[in-house]
């Protein structure tokens, strides 16, 4: 069921069939406005806001279990996967970045790079370094918006997927509004700890093993290493980045890390397929 839901979600996301207003973050924005009115919610309110969507999905999963020979449960899995996997905003920002780089518009490239990854610090980055920085962002976004969701769907089903996406949403809201929300960052660090290490190991297998394994071990065995550092540093070690070209914004490093991310995700789907065949996951 996890494999089928994931494949349908990937197809819908690639074809951009789901409108922006129906994607998970858009729905959660409406939910957040209706539940939280104050700028700094209390710990109790924040806990309720984080847990309520996952609890509702758990109850719904229990209610529809076995209905129509499990067809309703399959529909629920697929629906949650599609909602959580569709990210038109990030895809559009990356497309615009590539277009701006191709026409040599450096200022637009910096703007779209910030739009693509608001956590990316570009203050001390020059034009020659921007391509690699955006490539690292691509590796990070591939994990944060796709890899982590796939892993939670495989291991914990729709409930775990919704919980992760909810915490991620509030973390982004906290950064966007420059306000520290209680519980959010610590909980996201915990939720990212194991998946980031599992997913980054895929970079070791998908890229240059010898260089990547040492980077992976140094981050994976460090309990304080953040998910972003683990993902980006292992990705950079796993891929040989080409020399910068004479173009104002070099796309070669970005494309190289994008291709690595694609290979890693294909590896994840392949492993899931084998696990499904041998009955390890349902």
TrEMBL record:
The keyword Protein biosynthesis does not apply. This is Signaling modulator of AmpD, AmpE. It comes from the Bacteria. Signal peptide: none annotated. Keywords: Membrane, Transmembrane, Transmembrane helix. The chain crosses the membrane at residues 41-60, 67-89, 145-167, 265-281. GO terms for biological process: response to antibiotic. One of its GO terms (cellular component) is plasma membrane.
């Amino acid at each position: 069921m996890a494999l089928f839901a994931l494949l349908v979600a990937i197809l819908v996301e690639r074809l951009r069939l789901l409108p922006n207003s129906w994607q998970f973050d858009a729905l959660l924005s409406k939910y957040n406005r209706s539940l939280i009115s104050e700028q700094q919610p209390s710990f109790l309110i924040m806990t309720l806001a984080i847990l309520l969507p996952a609890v509702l999905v758990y109850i719904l999963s229990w209610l529809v279990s076995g209905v129509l020979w499990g067809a309703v449960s399959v529909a629920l899995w697929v629906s949650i996967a599609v909602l959580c996997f569709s990210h038109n905003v990030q895809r559009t920002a990356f497309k615009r970045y590539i277009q701006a780089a191709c026409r040599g518009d450096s200022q637009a490239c910096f703007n779209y790079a910030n739009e693509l990854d608001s956590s990316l610090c570009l203050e001390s980055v020059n034009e020659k370094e921007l391509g690699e920085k955006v490539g690292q962002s691509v590796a990070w976004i591939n994990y944060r918006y796709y890899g982590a969701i796939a892993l939670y769907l495989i291991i914990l089903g729709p409930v775990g997927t919704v919980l992760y996406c909810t915490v991620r949403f509030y973390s982004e809201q906290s950064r966007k509004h420059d306000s520290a929300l209680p519980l959010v960052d610590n909980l996201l660090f915990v939720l990212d700890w194991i998946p980031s290490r599992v997913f980054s190991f895929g970079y070791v297998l998908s890229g240059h093993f010898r260089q990547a394994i040492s980077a992976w071990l140094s981050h994976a065995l460090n309990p304080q290493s953040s998910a972003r550092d683990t993902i980006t540093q292992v990705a950079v070690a796993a891929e040989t980045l080409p020399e910068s070209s004479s173009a104002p914004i070099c796309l070669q490093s970005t494309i190289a890390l994008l291709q690595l991310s694609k290979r890693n995700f294909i590896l994840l789907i392949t492993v899931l397929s084998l696990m499904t065949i041998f009955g390890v996951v349902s």
